[in-house]
C-alpha cells in the first residue's frame, strides 16, 4: 500500500497516541525553529521517501554500538533502495561506518536528521517503513512512540544488555514474536522484508495499530503506581 495513503489514514490517531512527552533526553524532540522548516529538514523530501525504503534509527549516538554495524550494513547491501535515517549527532560514527561500508556508495544512504520538535518527529515516523531498535543498548520511549504511530519496530532482545523495553512493549500488545529477531542477520532480514514487501509491511502496521490500546490505554498501570506511591509515602506522612 502507498506510504502517503497510509499516512493520511493514520495521521490524526497516531499523533495523539504517540505523544508520550517532549522531555525525551535523546535530542530528537528539541528545537525552536519554525515547525514547517523543521519538518522539511527532518527528511530530504517526501518524493524521495516515496521511492525509498526508510528505516529509522532515531537514537542517541552513544547507543550506536559497533555490535550493530553488521546489521546496518546488511540492510544497505540487501536493498539498493534502503535508507537508514539517524540523528545528526550520529555523524561522530561516520569514520567507523566509512571504513565498514567502503566505496560502494552505501555511506550515501545513511541520512542524518537534525534536532526537531516533537511534532516534527511524529511526522518523520509517518514516512518510515521500520524502526530499528538499537543493541546492546535498546530503545524505550522512542520505540513506544514508533508503535504509537503504527510503525513496526524491529528488535533483537537477545543482544540487549539493559531492559528489553521494545520486547516488553510487544508482549503487552500480544505481539511478542512478531518482529523479534533471533540474531543480527535475522534482524536485518526482518527490516529488509518490511522495506521491500508491501503486504508484510501492511500486515505489520495493521497489527500494531489494532493493538495499540493494549499498550497505551492501561488504567491498571496507573492504579498500580498510585497504590505503590501511597504505600511508599505513608510511613513519612505526619499525622493530621
Task: Give me the oligomer status.
Answer: single chain
Tally the helices. Answer: 11
Mean pLDDT: 80
Computed structural class: alpha/beta
pLDDT below 50 for ≥5 consecutive residues: which ranges?
4-47
Percentage of residues assigned to helices: 40-55%
What overall geometry do the principal axes of the alpha carbons give? globular
Helices and strands, in N-to-C order? Answer: HHHEHEHEHEHEHHHH
Distance between the termini: 63 Å
**The biggest beta sheet, please?**
5 strands, parallel
User: Which strand-content bin applies to the residues?
Assistant: 5-15%
Strand order of the largest sheet: 3-2-1-4-5
SS elements, strand count: 5
| Radius of gyration based on Cα positions | 19 Å
Summarize the structure.
With 240 residues, the protein is α/β, with parallel strands linked by helices. It has eleven helices and five strands; from the N terminus they run αααβαβαβαβαβαααα.
Q: Would you mind describing this structure in some detail?
A:
Helices cover 50% and strands 8% of the residues. A five-stranded parallel β-sheet has the order 3-2-1-4-5. β2, α5 and β3 form a beta-alpha-beta unit. α1 packs across α7 and α4 packs parallel to α9.
